[in-house]
Amino acid sequence: MKKINREKLKKQKNIDTVKEQKIMKKEKKKKFKTQLKSQKIKVEEKTSNVTRKKRMRNEILILWAILFALIFRIGWIQFGMGAELQSMAYVQQTLDRSINPRRGTIYDATGKTILAVSSTVETITVNPVNIAKEDKEKVATALSNIFELDYETVLKRVSKKSSIETITKKVDKEKADELRIWMQENNITTGINIDEDTKRYYPYNNLASQVIGFSGSDNQGLDGIEAVYDDDLKGQKGKIQKLTDATGGDIKNTGENYVSAVDGNDLVLTIDATIQGIAEKYLEEACIDNECSDGGNIIVMNPKTGDVLAMAGYPNYNLNSPFEPSTEELKANWDTMSQTDKNRAMMVLWRNKAVTDTYEPGSTFKLVTTSAALQEGITTPDKKGEFTCTGGIEIAGVRIKCWRSYRPHGAESLREALMNSCNPVFIGLGQKLGVHTYYQYLEKFGLLGKTGIDLPGEATSIFLKEDKVGPVELATISFGQRFEITPIQLATAVSTIANGGVKITPRIVKQKINSQTGEITDIPVKLGERVISEEHSQEILSMMESVVAEGTGKNAQVKGYRVGGKTGTSEDGVNTNKYVTSFVGVAPISDPEVVVLVTLYNPTGEGGHQGGAVGAPVGGQVLSEVLPYLELQKDNQTQEDIKKQVEVPNIEGMTIQEATKALKEVNLDLQIQNEPEDIDKTKVVVKEQLPKQGIRVYEQTKIIIEI
């Protein structure tokens, strides 16, 4: 029993021991976990402290970086962008209204006749934010009534939430004064601006229109001299500045700052208004009488200086209304034409064909072949029977006929060949010269490039490349066909011959006048190399005189003066059945002062299309008035001739009836430029006249007037 109890006790003891051990293990495990947790907490606390410090350090670094960035930005705004921002702020806080400068005046060669001038007009603008809401309709009504504008359009501008709106430009002072009176009567003191402006005006309307060109409403030159010399003519804009608030409204007690415009410089052209008027008068008559469907042009040059005294084109246009039709045909069809056709038609009128278009010069070009042949010693002017015309010549299997093949010229000297305009003779000269030598002379005369005239759109010639020219091509070039040049190129080449053989460059402007100081700057005359000798120059002039005296140019004779010339007829394209008729003249032959080139495109009238019959008479008419006007002494002047010159009276301000009577008293005639169909000659007044008062002209000369 005791043994059993002892065993039970021992077993119980073992059980208790095991329990104690388990309890101790649990407590030990629990203690370990507690210690582990405590250590973990400590580690976490330590880690947290490190992280917090690191975060704080990073935050401090970020704050410093932001601070430095802000400081840098402020510095950049202040110093780097300061000027720009100041300018932007100034623009936002100020309201500028521009003042157009007076565009420079354009004078003719005399320096007295004004061809283009800027007159003072007004520009009307509004500041919508400065017009009271209850006044907007009233202001819109007044503006639309005074300036004949669409009311709804004006109201829309007056009602806009903007600082400034343009209502109308280039209005006459009388109209602007009506607005001033209305503003005063209605106590409108702010919101409407009347600023000085300029408007281009051309006193002689169509005169030299394709040379002078015109300017746009923004004072910018768009064509002709107005475009080429725009930088000289336009001047610098001025402005009116005033402070405004954020909405663009006026700030009380602040004035306006006025910055004056700088006027453009004046120009003096080589164009003489009287000679230009003479050229245009006879060109118009020739184109109408000979039914020249494609118009024509006349160039008058001084061969010693290259000065273009006149450059007339027909048809032309009115410089004061350059976008409106100026010919009767266009006026009749204008309303039925599309906008594209209208634009194309106006471009045709604006084109200065003497500079921008090329044509085959025909027999007038034989002067170049003659010059080269004489200079190279191939021929002489008066060797009897040196050449023989059989009615044609065969070149490389191609027979080229003389224009008078039906009755050959037979034996001829060079002078006689030029008088007869005999093609075979000049073909032969071209063959003797050879392609290379011939092209050297083309280069020397400036015929392979532009002349350099100071007008826009100058075209260059169209020749085959030298290495492409064969015997037939050389033959046709020698008498002026199958290549193209511009009229100004031919006039310049003939001027070189007339200038003793020294090349000249044509010019249109001879002086610039500074608008601020009045200082005059001369545009120099440009002389080039000698092309032919003076001796050969005199020989060619002598032969040209024979052409007018006895040859194809007889119709260009001018009583009392020695005139030389050469006629020309060529095809206008291949198989077009159109022709170009021309005449080039030089006078006086004893001391050349004038070269005139007449070019008529596709004459279809009863007079035909031959240069001698159609072109030469026009050249003679022009020279018959230009030579006396330039006071060039006649070669065989008589006392009777001197008595026929009279002084032009002043008829400006007279009625047409009074002017006609005043001119008749000195045996002069009156011609109205662009004469309207219905005109009351007892009331309409003469505004301008050409020639001007005091000029000496021959009796029965037509005085051109503008009304």
Can you give a write-up of this model?
Helices cover 40% and strands 19% of the residues. The chain is of the alpha+beta class and 707 residues long. Helix 9 runs antiparallel to helix 20. The protein starts with a helix and ends with a strand. It has 22 helices and 26 strands.
The overall pLDDT average reads 87
Reported CATH architecture of the largest domain: 3-Layer(aba) Sandwich
Label the overall shape: elongated
Number of strands: 26
Report the uncertain regions: 90-94
Distinct helical segment count: 22
Radius of gyration: 44 Å
What does the main sheet amount to?
7 strands, mixed
Helix amount: 40-55%
- What is the CATH class designation of the largest domain? Alpha Beta
Q: Strand fraction band?
A: 15-25%
In terms of topology, how is this protein built?
Elements lengths: L1 H79 L1 H12 E6 L6 E2 L6 E13 L9 H11 L4 H8 L6 E7 L1 H13 L6 E10 L7 H4 L11 H5 L1 H4 L4 E6 L12 E4 L6 E4 L3 H17 L6 E6 L6 E7 L13 H6 L5 H12 L2 H4 L9 H10 L11 E3 L2 E4 L2 E4 L8 E3 L1 H7 L2 H11 L1 H10 L26 H8 L8 H12 L3 E3 L4 E5 L6 E3 L4 E4 L3 H17 L13 E8 L7 E9 L6 E8 L9 H19 L9 H5 L1 E3 L8 H9 L4 E4 L15 E3 L5 E3 L3 E5 L1
Parallel strand pairs: 2-8, 23-26
Antiparallel strand pairs: 1-6, 2-3, 3-4, 3-5, 6-7, 8-16, 9-10, 9-21, 11-14, 12-13, 15-18, 16-17, 19-20, 20-21, 22-25, 24-26
Helix pairs in contact: 3-4, 9-20, 13-15, 14-19, 15-17
